[in-house]
Amino acid sequence: MGIALVAVAVLAGTGIYALAGRLSLNMEKNGNKAGASGQESPPAAASAREERPQVTETPPKLSVSEGDPSEDSASKAAGSAPSVSESASPAQDSLLEERLDRILDGMTTEEKVAQLFIVTPEALTGVDSVTQAGDSTRKALESRPVGGLIYFRNNLQTPEQVRDLTENTARIGREVCSLPLILSVDEEGGKVTRIGGRAGFDVPVFSNMWEIGAQNDPGKAYEVGSAIGSYLSGYGFNLDFAPDADVLTNPDNQVIGNRSFGSDPELVWSMASQVAKGLKDQGIQPVYKHFPGHGATLGDTHDGFSYTEKTLDQLLEAELVPFANAVKNGESCIMAAHIAAPGVTGDETPASLSHALITGVLREKLGFDGVVVTDALNMGAIQNLYSSGEAAVAAVEAGADLLLMPADFNAAYEAVLAAVEDGTITRERLDLSVRRIGRMKLAWDQQ
């Protein structure tokens, strides 16, 4: 996938997001369990690196800092990022679908299964620490052409190194994969950042989202999204696991806390939607999280079981409001959390693996036909109860499209492939997810 990825499609059928950004990669095999839920384990001490030679935290503030307007400034580099086109013409849609048909017809079952996964560069390559993209990345993508990669702090060392990493990864992906790569990061602002607030990265920093929500100023939320989107685009990313659309209805909730914009559903929607718009206007695909709403839960899914006791009607009055509005607004990507909702499903199955919640509520009741990505499948709520293969198959059966960070990528991949080959997952079901993912990716090239 070479130097530039252009544009992300609105999967729910509303339009095309321009996505600019050079893509590239480098990896470290470590104990990261943050996924897109914010917390990150310290990277493992690492030594092995890819064969290519490498190119050569301050407290958060509420307002944007201007940064160094030098050549190395990501904000300046992203200054020419295209804004999002809110709608695609029927002719564009038709051409995209025709192209997608041709690509899917030429893909093997193995390639299609690989498209369902977003993994760390370490999980893809087996390299202990990845900060560059070279032969190991190429060989790994030739074997398992995954849907995308997610990067953590250990992968991101200096501005120049990050740009080189994403640029080379994107180029290799374009050369060996049927579809472009998602190059993603978890950059909410506040306490959840992989780049912001780090020494050497001269980018804007922000206070927590609760403080921003307290201002009740959608313009400030847009400023957050636009600023983050600008530097992410400049560093070659094309997807951000943000905004947090959780409504904090349980004051004892610790996992979300001040990552939420507030306890009022309409305020949360207003602020989250403006962060998303700011990201899109800088060419970055937003992901609304954590369906069906982590703000009412007890427990932390990073460590183990977490649940909400609310009924569906109660959730529809509060926690589901931002997600329902996102669907109405044509947003294209939503993250399913590992939250059990026994008052809705009658059991303790996490939402990320629940057909009743993903298909029954999100897709059928709310009408969402975009991409559903799971929260990180290596988190305690999943890993303590399911094998990697069981979780991956269950997520696809539930209606998810992208499987984020299984604890054992190879085992998860082999399990889904076996499920397709034995008919547990039909080929039509596999194609449905690959088509949703592919529709988004092909729109990058259509701008």
The assigned CATH architecture is Alpha-Beta Barrel
Output the radius of gyration. 20 Å
Intertermini distance: 16 Å
Helix-strand makeup class: alpha/beta
The helix content is 25-40%
Mean pLDDT: 82
Oligomer: single chain
Strand order of the largest sheet: 7-6-5-4-3-11
Q: In CATH, what is the class?
A: Alpha Beta
List segments where confidence is low: pLDDT < 50 over at least 5 consecutive residues: 1-31, 39-85
Proportion in β-strands: 5-15%
Describe the main β-sheet briefly: 6 strands, parallel
Q: Total domains, how many?
A: 1
CATH homologous superfamily annotation: Glycoside hydrolase, family 3, N-terminal domain
Secondary structure: number of strands = 11
CATH topology-level name:
TIM Barrel
Q: How would you spell out the order of helices and strands? A: EEHHHEHHEHEHHEHEEHHEHHEHHEHH
Tell me the overall shape.
Answer: globular
Please, how many helices?
17
Describe the model:
It contains 17 helices and eleven strands. The longest helix has 20 residues, at 427-446. It has 447 residues and is an alpha/beta fold. The chain has one domain (8-446): Glycoside hydrolase, family 3, N-terminal domain (TIM Barrel, Alpha-Beta Barrel). The chain has helices spanning 74-77, 90-106, 109-114, 121-125, 135-143, 159-176, 209-214, 218-234, 265-281, 312-317, 321-328, 342-345, 355-365, 380-383, 388-398, 409-421, 427-446, and strands at 8-10, 15-17, 117-119, 148-151, 182-185, 239-240, 285-286, 288-291, 333-336, 371-374, 403-404. A six-stranded parallel beta sheet has the order 7-6-5-4-3-11. Helix 5 runs parallel beside helix 6 (159-176) and helix 15 packs across helix 16. 39% of the residues lie in helices and 8% in strands. The chain starts with 7 loop residues before the first strand and ends with a helix. It is globular, with a radius of gyration of 20 Å.
